[in-house]
Write a structure and sequence with these properties.
Structural class: mainly alpha
Helix content: 40-55%
Number of helices: 31
Organism: Diceros bicornis minor
Oligomer: single chain
Strand content: under 5%
Subcellular location: Mitochondrion
Mean pLDDT: 82
Pfam families: FAST_1, FAST_2, RAP
GO molecular function: RNA binding
InterPro entries: FAST_2, FAST_kinase, FAST_Leu-rich, RAP
Largest sheet: 5 strands, mixed
Length: about 700
C-alpha cells in the first residue's frame, strides 16, 4: 500500500480496483459542502480561479441544477477534516491515496450562503439515499446487486451496510441459510466485508449496527472475525452510551437473534432505551421497542411500567403506522399479554379496517390472531374481511383461509359471504390444505350451524380427502372434524366404525393415562347420533366406559348453560301460569346426557303433572330457554350444538318448545309473559288452554 506524502495526518482514503470507494458518513454541518466544493471545481461551469466566489453569485436553484446534471448521484459526505476509512481487499493489487483537504487557495473567498447550502446539501443527501435504496430494493439477485455496487465510485459506510443487508435479504428469500460460494468469492462482496471486519471503529453508528443486522439474516459462523469484531465494537459503544435511539433498537434486535434474549448486553440496551424520551422514536422505532420486549415475555412484569408508558404513547402514532408495523404491534400486544391496553387495540383495529387489502398473508394471519386473542369483534372489520375474502378467495393462502374461519368460529360470526367463499375455495383447492387446516376450515360450519350453497360438493370433497389421507390426520383433529360434520346433519357414517374401534381409541388416548373429557363427550354424541339419526348403521358401538354421563360440564361442555336472568323471568311466568312451582322441574339431566332447562310432564289428557310424579306421564315438554350465547353473534341463528340437542330431544320423544331471548325481550308486562308462555306451551291442547284462560282471568 502506498500513501502520498501530501496526505494530511488523520485523513485516509482507499480506492478499490473494482471502482468502489467506501467512506465514513458522518452527520455533520457543512460536510457535504466541502465534498461539493471539491467536486464542483471539476465542472465546466466553475473552472475558473476563485470558483467558490463564482458560486457565491449563483442562485441556489441554478447550482442545484448543475450539481444534479454533473455529479455522480452516489457521492460521499466528509467533514472539514475527513477521516476516510482504509479499505483493504486481498484481490486488490493497486491502492491509491488522495488528498481530500485541498479545497481552495488561501485567497479564495468563503462561501456566504451557508444556510442555503446546508439545505441544498441535505436535500441532495436524502434524495441520493432514497434513490440508492430504491435501486437496491429493485434488484432480485445478489449478482445484480454486486454488479451495481461495482459501478459506483464512492459509497458511504451506511449505504455499504445497506447493500450488505440487501444481499443477505435476497439470499434469504431463496430459502438457503448460507451465502453461495460464488457470492463469498466475489471481489466486491469481499471488499464490503473486509471494510467492516478490519476497522469497525471507523464506522458510523448506523453503518455499524446495520452491518451487524445484515449478518443476522443468514447463518454466520459465531466465531468469525467479522461478526466478533462488529459485536465487540457495538458493545464498546453501548457501554460508553454512544448509541442513539435508532441504533439501540437495531442492536437490540440483532442481539436477540445472535445471543438470545437472555444476554447481558440486551438488558443494557433496554435500560438505555427506557431512559430515552418516547418522542424521539419514530413510529418504526416504537414498534421495534415492542419487538425487543416481545422477545422476553417472561420478564413482562419487570418491564410492565415501561410497557404502560409505551402503550399510552402509541395511541398518538397509530395513524402513522404502515400495515406491517400495525401487524407487528398487534403481535407484540398478544405475546406480552397486554389485555389492559384495550384502547390501543381498539384504535389499531380501526386502522386495520382500511389496511386489510394491503396486508401480506402472514400479516393478516397475525392480525386475526390478535382479534381472536383480545376477544374483540368489529362489524366494520368483519365487513372489510368479507369483501377481501370474497374477492380473493381462490388466491388466498391456506393459512389465511383457516385463520379467517377460526376467527368466525371463535367469535360466533355467521358471515355467509365468508363461509360460502371458503367452501368454494376448498372444493377447488383442497389439495393445498393440511389436515389441521382442513379441520380448522370445516369446524366453523358445524359450530355456526350453516350449510353452504355448495354443501354437497364440499362434503363429497371432504369425504374423499379424509378417505385418502385418514392416517395423516391426528386423532383428536379427526374427531373434532367428524363431530363438526354431525352437528349440521352431515353424518360421517363411513368413518364411525373406525373411530369407535379400540385401535383408534388407543391412538386418541396416546401416552395419557385417560382420554380427555371433550373427546369422550364428542365420541358419546357421535354414538348417540348413530343411534338416533343413522339407524342403518350396523357397525361397532362405543363401549360404555368411553361414554360420558352429561354433555353439560364446566370445562368442555357440548351444551351452553342457561342464561340465569332469562331463566328467572321464565320461571316467574311459569309459576303464574301453572299456579305453583311444583308443576315444572329445572335443569333436568336426561338418560340421554342432555340437560333440559325446564321440563313439564303431561298426562294423556294434556293436564300438567307435578314434576315428582313418574306414573301416567304421556308426554314430556322440554323448554329450551335460549339466551344470546346460544345463537350466532347478533343474529337469531341457533348454534350447531344447540340445534343438534333440540333435534335429538325431538327424536327421543320430547315436545321441544323454544323460548328465545329476543321474544321475551319484546314482552312489556308480566301478563304478556304469561300469555306468551300459554301460547307456546298449550297451543295444541284446547282443553288445557281453556283451563289456563280461566286461571289467568281469576288472577
Amino acid at each position: 500500500m502506498r500513501t502520498t506524502s501530501s496526505l494530511p495526518q488523520g485523513s485516509r482514503e482507499l480506492r478499490i480496483s473494482s471502482g468502489l470507494q467506501i467512506k465514513r458518513n458522518r452527520e455533520s454541518d457543512g460536510m457535504a459542502l466541502i465534498t461539493l466544493r471539491r467536486n464542483l471545481c471539476h465542472l465546466s461551469d466553475f473552472r475558473i480561479h476563485g470558483a467558490l466566489a463564482a458560486l457565491k453569485n449563483q442562485p441556489v436553484n441554478h447550482v442545484h441544477k448543475v450539481v444534479r446534471e454533473h455529479l455522480c448521484p452516489w457521492f460521499c459526505s466528509l467533514q472539514p477534516e475527513p477521516f476516510r476509512v482504509r479499505f483493504h481487499h486481498a484481490c486488490c493489487k493497486k491502492f491509491h491515496s488522495e488528498n481530500g483537504n485541498d479545497l481552495h487557495s488561501a485567497g479564495e473567498p468563503v462561501f456566504s450562503q451557508v444556510h442555503d447550502w446546508d439545505r441544498l446539501e441535505q436535500n441532495l443527501k436524502n434524495v441520493d439515499e432514497q434513490i440508492f435504496y430504491r435501486r437496491l430494493n429493485n434488484f432480485t439477485s445478489s449478482e445484480e446487486l454486486l454488479h451495481f455496487i461495482s459501478t459506483l465510485q464512492t459509497l458511504p459506510d451506511t449505504m455499504a451496510a445497506g447493500a450488505l443487508k440487501r444481499i443477505c435479504e435476497v439470499e434469504r428469500k431463496d430459502g438457503d441459510q448460507r451465502l453461495p460460494k460464488e457470492i463469498l468469492e466475489n471481489s466486491v462482496f469481499q471488499a464490503l466485508c473486509i471494510q467492516f471486519e478490519q476497522e469497525p471503529s471507523n464506522l458510523s453508528n448506523t453503518g455499524l449496527v446495520t452491518a451487524l443486522q445484515a449478518l443476522t439474516l443468514l447463518y454466520v459462523d459465531p466465531q468469525s472475525s467479522l461478526l466478533l469484531n462488529l459485536l465487540a465494537e457495538c458493545q464498546r459503544r453501548l457501554q460508553r452510551g454512544d448509541l442513539e435511539v435508532h441504533s439501540l433498537c437495531v442492536l437490540g434486535e440483532s442481539l436477540i437473534k445472535l445471543q438470545g434474549p437472555g444476554c447481558a448486553a440486551l438488558e443494557l440496551v433496554i435500560c438505555q432505551l427506557q431512559g430515552e424520551k418516547l418522542e424521539k422514536f419514530t413510529p418504526g422505532g416504537i414498534v421495534a421497542l415492542y419487538r425487543i420486549l416481545q422477545a422476553c415475555p417472561e420478564k413482562v412484569d419487570q418491564h410492565q411500567t415501561f410497557l404502560n408508558k409505551i402503550n399510552n404513547f402509541s395511541l398518538s402514532i397509530v395513524s402513522n403506522l404502515s400495515p406491517t408495523l400495525i401487524s407487528q404491534m398487534l403481535t407484540a400486544l398478544v405475546v406480552l399479554d397486554q389485555t389492559q391496553a384495550l384502547p390501543l387495540f381498539i384504535k389499531l383495529g380501526k386502522c386495520v379496517v382500511r389496511h386489510i387489502p394491503h396486508f401480506t398473508n402472514e400479516e393478516l394471519v397475525k392480525v386475526l390472531e390478535a382479534f381472536i386473542y383480545f376477544g374483540h369483534n368489529d362489524r366494520f372489520f368483519t365487513k372489510a374481511l368479507e369483501q377481501h375474502v370474497a374477492s380473493l378467495c381462490l388466491t388466498l393462502d391456506p393459512e389465511v383461509v383457516s385463520k379467517v374461519m377460526e376467527y368466525c368460529g371463535r367469535k360466533l360470526i355467521l358471515s355467509i359471504p365468508i363461509l360460502d367463499a371458503v367452501a368454494e375455495t376448498f372444493v377447488c383447492q383442497s389439495e393445498k390444505f393440511s389436515p389441521s387446516q382442513i379441520s380448522e376450515l370445516i369446524e366453523p360450519f358445524g359450530k355456526l350451524n350453516y350449510l353452504p350453497r355448495n354443501a354437497s360438493a364440499l362434503f363429497r370433497k371432504l369425504e374423499n380427502m379424509v378417505l385418502a389421507h385418514f392416517n395423516y390426520f391426528p386423532p383428536k383433529t379427526l374427531l373434532k372434524l367428524l363431530h363438526s360434520c354431525s352437528l349440521i346433519e352431515c353424518h360421517p357414517v363411513n368413518f364411525m366404525a373406525k373411530i369407535f374401534s379400540p385401535y383408534f381409541l388407543q391412538q386418541l388416548q396416546g401416552d395419557e393415562s385417560y382420554l380427555d373429557r371433550l373427546s369422550l363427550a364428542q365420541l358419546t354424541q357421535l354414538f348417540l347420533t348413530s343411534i338416533l339419526e343413522c339407524p342403518f348403521y350396523k357397525g361397532p358401538k362405543l363401549l360404555p366406559k368411553y361414554q360420558v354421563k352429561s354433555f353439560l360440564t364446566p370445562c368442555c361442555s357440548l351444551e351452553t348453560p342457561v342464561d340465569f336472568q332469562l331463566y328467572k323471568s321464565v320461571k316467574t311466568g311459569l309459576i303464574d301460569l301453572l299456579g305453583a312451582r311444583v308443576y315444572f322441574a329445572s335443569k333436568v339431566l336426561t338418560p340421554y346426557r342432555y340437560t333440559i332447562d325446564v321440563e313439564i310432564k303431561l298426562d294423556e289428557e294434556g293436564f300438567v303433572l307435578p314434576f315428582t310424579v313418574d306414573e301416567d306421564v304421556h308426554k314430556r315438554v322440554a323448554l329450551c330457554v335460549d339466551g344470546p350465547k346460544r345463537f350466532c353473534l347478533n343474529s337469531q341463528h341457533l348454534l350447531g350444538k344447540e340445534a343438534i340437542k333440540q333435534r335429538h330431544l325431538r327424536l327421543l320423544g320430547y315436545q321441544v318448545v323454544q323460548i328465545p331471548y329476543y321474544e321475551i325481550e319484546m314482552l312489556k308486562s308480566r301478563l304478556e309473559l304469561v300469555e306468551y308462555l300459554q301460547r307456546k306451551l298449550f297451543s295444541q291442547n284446547a282443553g288445557v288452554r281453556r283451563i289456563i284462560d280461566i286461571f289467568i282471568h281469576q288472577n
